[in-house]
Write a structure and sequence with these properties.
Layout: E1 11-15, H1 18-27, H2 32-38, E2 44-48, E3 59-60, E4 63-64, H3 73-77, E5 80-83, E6 86-89, H4 96-100, H5 103-110, H6 115-128
Antiparallel strand pairs: 1-2, 3-4, 5-6
Length: 135
Amino acid sequence: MEAAGATPEVFFSQPNTAGFVDNLSRLFPGEGVHIHELFPPEGVHDRLAVDADGACLLLGPEGCRLPREARPYYCRLFPFWIRSGRQMYFEFKECQALRESRGGAGLLKRLGMTETGVFDLYHRLREAWGLLERR
């Protein structure tokens, strides 16, 4: 990310709060025990900094200022997610791409993504976060 233009002030470490761990447990249903092991209460995790309004410091008027391949997996995957083996997307009124597309297929096309690519990114994210694949 730094090689693509991310400056040091966009990175910081944050304590593993109960709210953070609860959110991860909701994103990965049935994996709460493993999530708690990976993100213990006394630990910290790295994240991207946000401004007073909660917007990522890398977000510009046209979206993320970093090339897609330099973004963290979660950012590349957003607004898509995998739940119970099926692709879905989060609905946020602030998401310009979502507002300008009509459903998941239009959103995939608008973002230059494919269903296969979404699944691949999701699995890479799981691996990067230390979540073993569930079979």
